[in-house]
């Protein structure tokens, strides 16, 4: 399924408006890795905005129905994909399960929470695709449990080549409700960025590590 340009632009518009996506090319954020980044994305903010939450949920539902057809259940990826996954499952009238970032070290030691006896296949819901590793770890856990993964849907992707390659290697179909180029186009149109800053964000996307190192060097030389 190819989502319409209008739908992708609307998701980007919403994420920028509620500051789920924030852009600071001149004062970058520091990621957990220590790298500097001109963008920070926290799509969980959409849950606090009913209009945005509803739009994203319905678009995900339509994408599942059109792309993957009939499925047994929806699986959320902890933690960002749990709430949206549950909303989507409720809308579709389907069971919901979720995949932990790591198996519990007590009790049953579950990596997957929910009743797995009532399903044989799922669509996975994620909030954000960066390198794709955490999402594909969840896909692996589901497959190890004997569950077919028909595909994965996320709200946003940075569009890194490493993620594209990882999903291809894992033979896991995936799509996102909006993406990095669409978001940048929308941000430029609405005045969140100027043309010079747009180029900076394009440069970061092509080489995040190199961009971060260059920024640090400029700061240290001041």
Question: Can you walk through the features of this model?
Answer:
The chain has one domain: Rossmann fold. Helix 1 runs antiparallel to helix 2, helix 2 crosses helix 3 and helix 7 packs across helix 8. With 222 residues, the protein is of the alpha/beta class. It is globular. The model has no long low-confidence stretch (mean pLDDT 94). 45% of the residues lie in helices and 19% in strands. The strands form three sheets. The protein has a six-stranded mixed beta sheet with strand order 7-6-5-8-9-10, sandwiched between helices. Strands 1-4 form a two-stranded antiparallel sheet.
- Please give the largest β-sheet: 6 strands, mixed
| Sheet with most strands: strand arrangement | 7-6-5-8-9-10
Tally of separate helices = 8
What's the overall average pLDDT, rounded?
Answer: 94
Could you estimate the helical fraction of the residues in percent? 40-55%
- Total separate domains: 1
CATH-derived topology: Rossmann fold
In terms of DSSP E residues, the strand content is: 15-25%
Shape: globular
Number of strands: 10
CATH architecture: 3-Layer(aba) Sandwich
What is the distance, rounded to the nearest whole angstrom, between the alpha carbons of the first and last residues? 49 Å
The gyration radius over C-alpha positions equals 18 Å
Contiguous uncertain segments of 5+ residues: none
What pattern of helices and strands is seen along the backbone?
A: HEEEEHEHEEEHEHEHHH
Structural class: alpha/beta
The CATH class: Alpha Beta
């Amino acid at each position: 399924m190819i989502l319409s340009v209008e739908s992708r632009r609307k998701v980007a518009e919403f994420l920028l408006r509620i500051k789920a996506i924030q852009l600071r090319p001149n004062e970058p954020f520091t990621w957990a890795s220590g790298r500097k980044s001109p963008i920070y994305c926290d799509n969980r903010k959409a849950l606090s905005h009913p209009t945005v939450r509803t739009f994203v949920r319905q678009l995900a539902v339509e994408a599942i129905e059109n792309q993957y057809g009939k499925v047994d259940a929806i699986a959320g990826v902890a933690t960002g994909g749990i709430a949206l996954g549950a909303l989507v499952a409720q809308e579709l009238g389907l069971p919901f399960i979720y995949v932990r970032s790591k198996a519990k070290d007590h009790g049953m030691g579950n990596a997957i929470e929910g009743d797995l006896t009532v399903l044989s296949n799922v669509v996975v819901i994620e909030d954000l695709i960066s390198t794709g590793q955490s999402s594909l770890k969840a896909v692996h856990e589901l497959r190890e449990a004997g569950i077919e993964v028909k595909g994965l849907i996320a709200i946003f992707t940075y569009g890194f080549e490493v993620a594209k390659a990882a999903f291809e290697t894992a033979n896991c179909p995936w799509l996102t409700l909006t993406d990095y180029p669409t978001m940048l186009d929308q941000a430029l149109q609405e005045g969140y960025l100027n043309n010079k800053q747009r180029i900076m964000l394009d440069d970061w996307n092509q080489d995040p590590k190199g961009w971060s190192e260059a920024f640090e060097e400029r700061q240290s030389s001041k």
